Amino acid sequence: MSAPRSGDVCRVLVLEPYYAGSHRAVLDGVLSRLGDGWEADLLTLPARKWKWRMRGAGITMAARARELHAGGARWNLVFASTFVNLAEFKGLAGEAVAGVPSVVYFHENQLLYPVRHEAEWDLQFPLTNITSALAADECWFNTAWNLDGFLTEIPGFLKRFPDHLPKGVVQAIRAKSSVLHPPFDAAAFDAVPPARDGHPRIVWPHRWEHDKGPDTFFAAATALAAEGLDFEVAVAGQAFADKPDCFERAEAALGHRLTHLGEPGSRADYARLLRSSDIAVSTAVNEFFGIAMVEACYAGCYPLVPDDLAYPELYPGEFRYRDADELHARLRSLVLDRPAPGAARDLGEAYTFEASMPAWREAFERTSGSIGSGAMGEERGA
Questions:
Q1: Is 353 exposed, middle or buried (0-12, 13-18, 19+ CB in 10 A)?
Q2: Residue pLDDT, tens place only, 306-347
């Protein structure tokens, strides 16, 4: 991007070391909708090797920020994801970002992330989240569950220090933290009419990883199949080389009922899949928000989500289940008595960009100090 036009533009320096999926969709959508008074310099890295992104992105991005600054770039705001060590970045970037307000956005936090192999876990990851939060002027969390859980877990984590335990960390972070839900683009769903023909369809639209609980979902689906019920199953979401074994077992067990298996080829294909489904299910054991389920609600699906994690904050009780037995019972009831489309559409509508952008725009303006000034101040541009 070109250098800022003095006096009429607010400029944000974006740090996203994992530029894909919901991180990219939310970021691109927000930046494109902030308005004519905003411009951005995006420092991004490909979405791979996330552990190394957290370890080293601050070094790479600080060097790039110094180059941009030397070329004349000045910023009103630094906006970082939790995949960068913001404290490290600010220290290495030095004069380039001196005095510039900074925000870290928590799509997730490593203190609440489920760990399958504790012995192999690198404690630097949650510590990076903590130091980034301490280094930021504001911390924005995608849900209150994410924020509250992060603050609750910090004291126990800090007790791992052999001595010189940090003091006042929770209080310092709480004082500058708020909740800002991630929005989604509804255009693809609006462009596709509902198409609910044939048997009721259950969709599971999640990453093919253990933390999304695929075993629980497939157990419920295969139990319904064993009863002889007529229904279809669509399994979407991103697959990885190291996928859980249950996917192959489910393909054999569900047979003709499994009408879709794999990540849709495009956003339009994904919208058509959701618009042709009746029931959307989450079996996650780790979920900080869950954009896929919100999109499914908007598309007309009836959601079933665990009565846990971030879900009670977002979904009324009628859409939540307590355990695997209740999931099976609720699915059986919905297959036998097919739900009408749109039972939770208003829930999805609350998180579209159209509904969410006023809050996002106000947060950017407030934190950058541009409210009332409408421009980049000379002091920050120096």
A1: middle
A2: 999 999 999 999 999 999 999 999 999 999 999 999 999 999
